[in-house]
Specification:
The structure holds 2 protein chains of 2 kinds. The longest helix of chain A has 20 residues, at about 215-230. In chain A, strands 6, 7, 8, 9, 10, 11, 12 and 13 form an 8-stranded mixed sheet that branches. Chain A has a 5-stranded mixed sheet with strand order 2-1-5-4-3, covered by helices on one side. The radius of gyration of chain A is 21 Å and the shape is globular. Chain A folds into 2 domains: about 25-110, Glutamine synthetase, N-terminal domain (Ubiquitin-like (UB roll), Roll), CATH 3.10.20; about 120-375, Creatine Kinase, Chain A, domain 2 (2-Layer Sandwich), CATH 3.30.590. Chain A has helices at about 10-20, 115-125, 175-185, 215-230, 260, 265-280, 280-285, 295-300, 325-330, 350-360, 370-375; strands at about 25-35, 40-45, 60-65, 75-85, 95-100, 130-140, 190-195, 200-210, 235, 250-255, 315, 325, 335-340. In chain A, strand 4 (about 75-85) and strand 5 form a beta hairpin. In chain A, about 30% of the residues lie in helices and about 20% in strands. By secondary structure, chain B is α+β, with helices and mostly antiparallel strands. Chain B is about 25% helix and about 25% strand. Chain B contains 10 helices and 13 strands. The mean pLDDT of chain B is about 95. Classes of the chains: A alpha+beta, B alpha+beta. At the A-B interface, helix 1, strand 2, strand 3 and helix 4 of A face helix 1, helix 3, strand 7 and helix 4 of B.
């Protein structure tokens, strides 16, 4: 069976319990990124009243030795609430709370890339950097094989699946529909969905989000997807190349613009930014997956609508380039550009931060600049 | 499905039609008690002609103790004394769940009624306002006895991704936890939170902070709700402290403790004093921390898997391998609470809170004989 045993528990029984009134009490589910830099963890606490803003939510802590984040002898780590959303699983007044993780000494945990991102974003507030990220993902059964694929086999070659309809083309649409609605309910800025080139592969887009919100909204959208798939009994993978061979990988194309780029004549700024990006390819590749480029090496081959990981390229309407300038932008001479390099399992905080550093802060060289010394 | 009971496949829509029937002025009162094993819960229900507004409106009752490992057939009647009332999340308002103490025929507490003696200690130490929070770990099993959702005749991937995990490959049986949480909130149980645990199919809920005798009351009823919710879904919750041998975590009931003094400025010194006293009575505590005098915990407290060894007492800040852990925040703020990590998942919370209160607040070395 491709779907989990848990998913076969009786949902009518579950609904009876979930309909029980809870008085004034509120369940707040705290969510954080674990030591792998890709995995999400969560636990819940009861509050006596409904929190109206993030400030109403208390700090918490957890056992970091069970999440690849600390040793057993010194395992407490702090959870600092960062962004609050409505809970589409338990519904109002309950909340999902995305958190930053701090170590025992209150310094950011290794995989807490939000803190630095927030600092960088605060330096460029007046430029109003907007992002839109296209999250691709693959649905798998609990046996690890793509959902809907014949067991021990493969479907027909790619061609009919992208934006397809029909039981022989679209595998698992229920998940996409449910996820879309759940994100809208939660308050995540989801702007669209489509079926992707590989069967059982899908995409949703989050944005436009300004600054730090991009990372926050994308991580919560990912959590909602994992949690939803758990209910359906299937698994979602953000691996950038889940099937080797003539099958597409999964990326997280990142669209980017600043106030200047969006205004008349903005194309000039876009082109300048692309020149800067061309000179910093290695720095960006390192930032664009959680293993410093090793994951993307399996995906960015130069085939299957990717650019080659070793070379930087850019072009209008070119899906084989590292950076694509949409045709409409080329015509209007303003707008945004698309960085096609980030992998599906990238950390959106460091991706957005890298774009801001190179394009707005005009950094150069292989290492990010430490701005704390300058602003101290 | 092989893992779930036949009962759970009875048609719930049919059930709902009947449960929706109005019941006039009558209310259904379900009496709950602990049986002769010290771990098992029993229950039976009676009708009252009105909705009870407080405990004293609920009459004493009795039951056949020879069928619950509690008495001989020749002299089997035992008394049920209501001690705390909750709303019923299964048959809803105006019906109630009533936790009871069990008395023998001679009105002395039954062998596994640890509440009576716990109450006495809590009365004695009342001025200290001792608060408890207990972290109840449990494992979900199919009715075949194998952990729920594990591959038949096999094992899942090793521990690592499951603690607080999300996703069908990490979280097994979340529906139970979600429903139990709602049931507790409805009933009026002081449920603090929940999380997925280190072993797959293992979960935890926390009850507290509760003062004195309330801790045992709320935890026992929370356990009843857990078993009852699992019964509806057709699977089983076990509180066995080491359900699977090998490189798989056990299940405990870490007990967080504080007194008024510990919670105030400079409280850390009182915490350290308490820990010092606890260090002198390790074997006595181990005896009370599971229902078989320490034998159950022997399988769990190995020194591995975030436990301390059963043979040694240890304490440390943020140290999950110690008997007592002082949370980091407490170490920094110099006040708060401490965590006793020794109690097993199937402990009796009355026995645990009673001995902690006695040792920390009533014990001195010359008094040892009388304790």
């Amino acid at each position: 069976m491709a779907t989990s045993t848990s998913s076969k528990l009786n949902k009518a029984v579950k609904q009876q319990y979930m309909d029980l009134p809870q008085g004034d009490k509120v369940q707040a589910m705290y969510i954080w990124i674990d030591g792998s830099g890709e995995g999400l963890r969560c636990k819940t606490r009861t509050l006596d009243t409904e929190p109206k803003t993030i400030e109403d939510l208390p700090e918490w802590n957890f056992d970091g030795s069970s999440t690849y984040q600390s040793e057993g002898s010194n395992s407490d780590m702090f959870l600092i609430p960062a962004a609050m959303f409505r809970d589409p699983f338990r519904k109002d007044p309950n909340k999902l709370v995305l958190c930053e993780v701090l170590k025992y000494n209150r310094k950011p945990a290794e995989t807490n890339l939000r803190q630095t991102c927030k600092q960088i974003m605060s330096m460029v507030e007046n430029n109003h950097p907007w992002f839109g990220m296209e999250q691709e993902y693959t649905l798998l059964g609990t046996d690890g094989h793509p959902f809907g694929w014949p067991s021990n086999g493969f479907p027909g070659p790619q061609g009919p699946y992208y934006c397809g309809v029909g039981a022989d083309k679209a595998y698992g649409r229920d998940i996409v529909e449910a996820h879309y609605r759940a994100c809208l309910y939660a308050g995540v800025d989801i702007c669209g969905t489509n079926a992707e080139v590989m069967p059982a592969q899908w995409e949703f887009q989050v944005g436009p989000c300004e600054g730090i919100n991009m990372g926050d909204h994308l991580w919560v959208a990912r959590f909602i997807l994992h949690r939803l798939c758990e209910d359906f009994g299937v698994v979602v993978s953000f691996d950038p190349k889940p099937i080797t061979g003539n099958w597409n990988g999964a990326g997280c194309h990142t669209n980017f613009s600043t106030k200047e780029m969006r205004e008349d004549g903005g194309l000039k700024i876009i082109e300048e930014s692309i020149e800067r990006l061309a000179k910093r390819h290695q720095y960006h590749i390192r930032a664009y997956d959680p293993k410093g480029g090793l994951d993307n090496a399996r995906r960015l081959t130069g085939r299957h609508e990717t650019s080659n990981i070793d070379e930087f390229s850019a072009g209008v309407a070119n899906r084989g380039a590292s950076i694509r300038i949409p045709r409409a932008v080329g015509q209007d001479k303003r707008g945004y550009f698309e960085d096609r390099r980030p992998s599906a399992n990238c950390n959106p905080y460091i991706v957005t931060e890298a774009l801001v550093r190179t394009c707005l802060l005009k950094e150069e060289g292989e290492e990010p600049t430490d701005h704390r010394k300058l602003t101290a | 499905m092989p893992a779930m009971s036949l009962s759970s496949r009875l048609n719930k829509a049919v059930r709902q039609q009947y449960l929706n029937l109005p019941q006039g002025e009558k209310s259904q009162i379900t009496y709950i008690w602990i049986d002769g094993t010290g771990e098992g819960l029993r229950n039976k229900t009676r009708t009252l002609d009105f909705e009870p507004k407080s405990l004293d409106e609920i009459p004493e009752w009795n039951f056949d103790g020879s069928s619950t490992y509690q008495s001989e057939g020749s002299n089997s009647d035992m008394y049920l004394i209501p001690v705390r009332m909750f709303r019923d999340p299964f048959t809803l308002d105006p019906n109630k769940l009533v936790l009871c103490e069990v008395l023998k025929y001679n009105r002395l507490p039954a062998e596994t009624n640890h509440r009576a003696s716990c109450m006495k200690v809590m009365e004695e130490i009342k001025e200290h306002c001792m608060w408890f929070g207990m972290e109840q770990e449990f494992t979900l099993l199919g009715i075949d006895g194998h952990p729920f959702s594990w591959p038949t005749n096999g094992f899942p991937r090793p521990q690592g991704p499951y603690y607080c995990g999300v996703g069908a490959d990490s979280a097994y049986g979340r529906d139970i936890v979600e429903c139990h949480y709602k049931a507790c909130l409805f009933a009026g149980i002081n449920i603090y939170g929940t999380n997925a645990e280190v072993m797959p199919s293992q979960w935890e809920f926390q009850v507290g902070p509760c003062e004195g005798i309330e801790m045992g009351d709320h935890l026992w009823v929370a356990r009843f709700l857990l078993h009852r919710v699992c019964e509806d879904f057709g699977i089983i919750a076990t509180l066995d402290p080491k359900p699977v041998q090998g490189n798989w975590n056990g299940a405990g009931c870490h007990t967080n403790v504080s007194t008024k003094q510990m919670r105030e400025e400079g409280g850390l010194q009182y915490i350290e004093q308490a820990i010092d006293k606890l260090s002198k009575r390790h074997p006595q505590h181990i005896q009370m921390y599971d229902p078989s005098g320490g034998k159950d915990n022997m399988r769990r407290l190995t020194g591995l898997h975030e436990t301390a060894s059963i043979h040694e007492f240890s304490a440390g800040v943020a140290n999950r391998g110690a008997s007592i852990r002082i949370p980091r925040q407490v170490g920094q703020e110099k006040k708060g609470y401490f965590e006793d990590r020794r109690p097993a998942a199937n402990c009796d919370p009355y026995a645990v809170t009673k001995i902690i209160a006695s040792t920390c607040l009533l014990y001195s070395e010359d008094k040892e004989e009388s304790m």
